[in-house]
Amino acid sequence: MKIRIIILFAVALMMAACGRNDNQRLSGDLVTNPKSAEKPSDVKPVIQFEKTEFDFGKILQGEVVSYTFHFTNAGNAPLIITSVEKSCGCTTGDFPRKPVEPGQGGDIKVTYDSKGHFGFQSKTVVVNANTVPSQTSLRVKAEVRTPDQL
Predict the structure, then answer these.
(1) Range of the domain at 98
(2) pTM of the complete model
(3) How many domains, in total, are found in the chain?
């Protein structure tokens, strides 16, 4: 028991003796993330959609429908879309893989497959990009009907 106390004391003493060298710290000027920087950067992309929701109306069960959401980079830095997350396997999101320059636009095509679905459906895709906030939700809706209901 005494040996453990002596070892713990020696380790604590060595840790206290090891001082920090503040000259090796990174400058805060290197931080450009607006969420963590003391001074937010004025240079950032801004994703601006014409609309974030689309209603297909009444569709036949099994039908595959698509809508293209158009956006513009309203910021002053290149916009990079890193991914589009879907809410279920029945939706897909196709997005530009190259940076979108300030003032330029692009499209995100959302496709919904109604196979096996019935009634009112609301599906969401989440666009992940280098914007603040980093996520934007897009929604497609439809009322899926069987052939005997049309």
Answers:
(1) 47-149
(2) 0.71
(3) 1
87 neighbors 112 (Cβ within 8 angstroms): no
**Nearest by Cα to 112 from 63, 70, 148, 149:** 63
In a domain, 103, yes or no: yes
Residue 120 forms part of a structural domain: yes
Owner of token pair 């459906």: 121
28 has pLDDT over 60: no
Residues 6+ apart with CB under 8 A from 9: none
Q: Mean pLDDT across the stretch 116-135?
A: 96
Instruction: Tell me the mean pLDDT in the region 14-36.
Output: 45
Please indicate, yes or no, if residue 35 is contained in any of the structural domains. no
Residue 68 lies in a domain: yes
The CATH number assigned to the domain holding 97 equals: 2.60.40.10
115-133 core/surface letters (b: 16 or more CB in 10 A; e: else): eebeeebebbbebebbbee
Q: Are strands 105-113 and 91-94 parallel, antiparallel or unpaired?
A: antiparallel
Q: Which amino acid is at 8?
A: L
pLDDT digits (tens, 9 = 90+) for 47-87: 999 999 999 999 999 999 999 999 999 999 999 999 999 98
